[in-house]
Amino acid sequence: MMTTTATPLPPLASVYRSRVSVELKEFFRQRESVVFTLLLPVLLLVVFGAVLDFDLGDGVSFTQYFMAGIIAAGILGASLQNMAINIATERSDGTLKHLAGTPMPRSAYFVGKIAQVLAVTLASVVVLLLIGVVFYGVDLPSGADWLTFAWVTVLGAAACTLLGIAISSIAKNGRSASATVTPFALLLQFISGVFFQFSEIPTWMQTFASIFPLKWMAQGLRSVFLPDALAADEPAGSWELGRVALVLGIWCVLGLVLCVRTFRWQDR
Amino acid sequence: MADRQRPGDPLDPDAAISVRGLVKRYGDFTAVDGLDLDIRRGEIFALLGPNGAGKTTTVEICEGYRARDAGEVRVLGEDPADGTRAWKARLGIVLQSGSGDSQLTVRELVSAQASYYADPRDVDEVLALVGLTEKAGVRGRSLSGGQRRRLDVALGIVGRPTLLFLDEPTTGFDPEARRQFWSLIRSLRELGTTMLLTTHYLDEAEALADRVGVIAGGRLVEVAVPSALGGRETAPAVVSWSEGGARRSEATATPTAFVAGLAARFPGEVPDLAVARPTLEDVYLQMIGDAR
Questions:
Q1: Are A15 and B116 an interchain contact pair (Cβ–Cβ within 8 Å)?
Q2: B residues 241-260 near A, CB within 8 Å?
Q3: Which of A3, A4, A7, A116 to mutate to test the interface with B (most CBs of B within 10 A)?
Q4: What pLDDT sits at residue A6?
Q5: Ranked by mean pLDDT, which of A217-221, A231-235, B205-209 comes out on top?
Q6: Contact A2 B65 (CB under 8 A)
Q7: Smallest Cα–Cα separation from B209: which of B44, B39, B17, B55?
Q8: Distance CA B213, CA B47 (A)
Q9: Which of A136, A177, A228, B227 has its CA at 20 to 30 Å from residue B67's CA atom?
Q10: pLDDT per residue over B145-154, tens digit each?
C-alpha cells in the first residue's frame, strides 16, 4: 500500500537562509551585474562631480544636489533594473521552473530577492556616500535627516523592487528585459532631477516624471542632502515629504497587485 | 501485453503513477487525447514517442507543472493539481530545459537544493554518484553539456526522491557519456527509485527500461517489456545467407528448423548466415506510423 505518512519539511528559517546565501552569491559573483549596477553610478558621480561643481546658491555645490539624485538612481538600479533583468533571465533559462518543482516554499524565493536588493542597495549607497564625502566634499546628513534617508531608501527600493518583478513577467528573457528597462531608466534619470536640476526641466516633462517613483525618491533625498533654504527652489516650494511617502506607497501597492497577478514560474 | 490500462479501469492505488482518460488541449490542438497509464513502484518506465506526441505534456501534468482538461491522475497517491510541498518533497524532477545558469559552484548548488528537504542525501555522496566529485568547486555555468546534465540529475536525487522524472536526460551526449549515464540510472534503481524516463533513443529505452510505453497522437498505443514490444518476440525472423553469388533471405516463424534445413544443404558453414528479429526501432517506427 502507498505510505501516506506526511513527509517532513525543513524549518522555514533554514530555507530562507539558504536562499539568501544563494542570491547574494549569484549577484556579487557576476561581474556584469556588479559593474552595471554598482559601478555605473559611481562612474557617473566621479565624472559629474568633477565637471559640474557650480554653485547652486547659499554656497551649496551641484555635487551636493547630484549626490541625492545619483543615490536615487543607484537604488533604482539595485531594485527595479536588477529585478526586471534578473528574474526575466531566471524565468527564460529554467531556474524558476526548476525551483517550482522542488518543495522550496515559494516565499523563500522572494525573501532571497529582497535580501539581494537590500544588500546591493546598501552597498551602492555606502560606496556613493564614501566617494562623495572623500573626493567631492559632500556634507553627510545629520540628525533627523538620517531617518528620512532611511525611509525614502527603503520605501523607494520596495516600490521599485515590486515594479521590477512585475516588469520581468512582460519580458521574453533577460536580454529583452535589459533592452526595455535600461533606456527607460536612463530617460527617467534625465527628467527626474538626477543629472539636471528638476526645476530647470520643462513643466510637461516634470509632470511626466511625477508619475514614476524616481522623481519622488530623488526629491526625498534632496531634503536629506540640501539645506532647507533650497526647498524654495523646488517646483512645489517645499520638499513635500508627505507626498513622497504617499506616491511611493501607492507604487508599492500597485506593484504588489501587478506582481501577484502576473508572476509566472515558467515560460509560456 | 496485459499491462495496458483501459479507460474503465479504476486508478491503481499501489502504482507510483496512475493515469486514466487524460486529456490536454492547447486551443484547437489536442496534445493528449484520453491517455491511460500505470507505472509500478520500483520500475524504470520509458515513454517513447515522436515530438508532439504528448510525451512532455503528459510528464509535466504528472509533475504538477500543467493543468489537465479531463481525466484522473494520481502520482504517489496524490493529485498533482494539488501539488503540496510534502508531495513535491517525494519527487525528483530532471527537466528537459535543465536548471538554469549559475554563478554557484556545483557543491553549493547541490547543497542549496538539499536545504529544501528535511532528510536529504549527503552532498558528497550525491556528487560521487553522478561523477562530479572533481567538479565540486566549478561554477554551474562553466560546466560542459554532459556535466550540466549530471548536475541536473544530482539536483533531482539529492532530496531522496521516491519517484524520479527524467525528461530526455541524455540529449546531446556522446556515446561514452550516455553509457556512464546509464550506469548511474542503474545504480539509482538499486536504491529503489521509481523512474519515468522519456527519450528519443530506442537503445536507451531497451538498455534501461523494465517496461516501455509508446505514445502516438496523444494516446498510449502500447505498453510492453522492451523485448516484446510490437509482438517483437513472436514476429517472423528473417534468415539470410549467400548462395550462388547472390544474397538470399527468408522470413520464417520457425527459424531453427529453417537453419537446420540450410545446414543440410551446404557441406560446411552456411555462407554469411544471419538470423534477425525486428529491432525495437523497426516496431517503433511501424507503430507510430500506424497511429498517424
A1: yes
A2: none
A3: A7
A4: 67
A5: A217-221
A6: no
A7: B44
A8: 5
A9: A177
A10: 888 988 999 9
